[in-house]
Amino acid sequence: MGSNIAPLLAPFQLPTRLPKGEVIAIDGHNAVLQAMSVSIKGKQAGLWRDREGQPVAHLQGILNRAAGILSAGAWPLFVFDGKPAEAKGRKDYDRIQARVTVEAKIAKARRENDGEYREWLQNRPSYFWSKVFREVKQLLAQLGCPYLQAPSEGEAQAAFLSLAGITSAVISQDFDALLFGAPRLYRRAPGLKAKYVLLDAREILNALQLTRNQLVDCAILAGTDFNAGVPGIGPRLAAKLVRQYECIEGIPESVKAKYDFGVLPRVSIEMARETFLNPDVLADVPVPAWREPSRDPLVSFCCREHHLNETHVAQAVERWAKKLRQAQKMPQTCIKFGGGLS
């Protein structure tokens, strides 16, 4: 879901193209969600199945996404979530329990030869979701596209890569990347075409007259994945209060009395701040490398195992390979990494 600050940041989205020659960190989980949820010809892509009833939209979607970003001139580096932060992990507990329950029901249906019920269970997201991400990573490895497994929040790791000078920006639909410190955030515009909008953190903070720490406080007041927001306080009012009183603790009791601040105890505030401002990230990150695709294994995986259209897969793979061939004719300096910690 992300933080409830979209109305505050949406006016700062500027239509743009991806920067040529720059390394961009892609929020991997967010990209997969998009691939599964996009609507094509009136049908949600996540409903597509192969002949065995397994989902396939994530494979074609991420293959097209990686090839499209490289063809546009940017160098994609996917970053995937690891263990969720403690507060978010508690929210995920029910989902984990649901998967355990589904596994037990599938085993029972298999013992009772109830194929119809077993197939229905296997098509539920709580069952196939972890498999989806394993397959996406396999796809990227065979394509030759680098990816990184974060220890915790993928967006936090992606933002750190920009701060560390490994990438220059983050691609994600969630605004949380800005709270994690990303200097630039690219979001895909609606539609199937690869159009983007850009949010520049420095320009946003200057316009809102807020610091990054204060923007985090605004998000905490409005609600995040890691804490409940204060009822009646939306992002714009949150920004007004933080701007006037500097931080959540500075808001006077006379103002707090008008809202239910009891849902936001001090421990929740501190935990959310810690999550955004001091996230668990992998600091020792190797320089990413982009390679020629392993065509035969990739085609076998996508087309033989999951019955994707071989022509469509081959076209995406050739787009990737063609751009790599062009890049090999240019100096290595054509790949621009970020500006480093500042």
List the keywords:
single chain, seven-stranded mixed sheet, 9 strands, 2 domains, 50% helix, globular, Rossmann fold, 15 helices, two-stranded antiparallel sheet, DNA polymerase, domain 1, alpha/beta, 342 residues
Description of the structure:
The structure is a single chain. The chain folds into two domains: 6-95 and 125-205 and 309-331, Rossmann fold (3-Layer(aba) Sandwich), CATH 3.40.50; 207-277, DNA polymerase, domain 1. It contains 15 helices and nine strands. It has 342 residues and is an alpha/beta fold. The strands form two sheets. The protein has a seven-stranded mixed beta sheet, with helices on both faces.
In sequence order, what are the helices and strands, one letter per element?
Answer: HEEHEEHEHHHEHEHEEHHHHHHH
Structural class, by secondary structure, is alpha/beta
Low-confidence stretches: 89-97
Averaged pLDDT, please? 84
**CATH fourth-tier homologous superfamily of the largest domain:** 5'-nuclease
**CATH first level of the largest domain:** Alpha Beta
Global Rg: 22 Å
Any idea of the CATH topology of the largest domain? Rossmann fold
How many helices in DSSP terms? 15
Spatial order of the strands in the main sheet? Answer: 1-9-8-7-2-5-6
Please indicate the count of domains. 2
Q: Name the overall outline.
A: globular
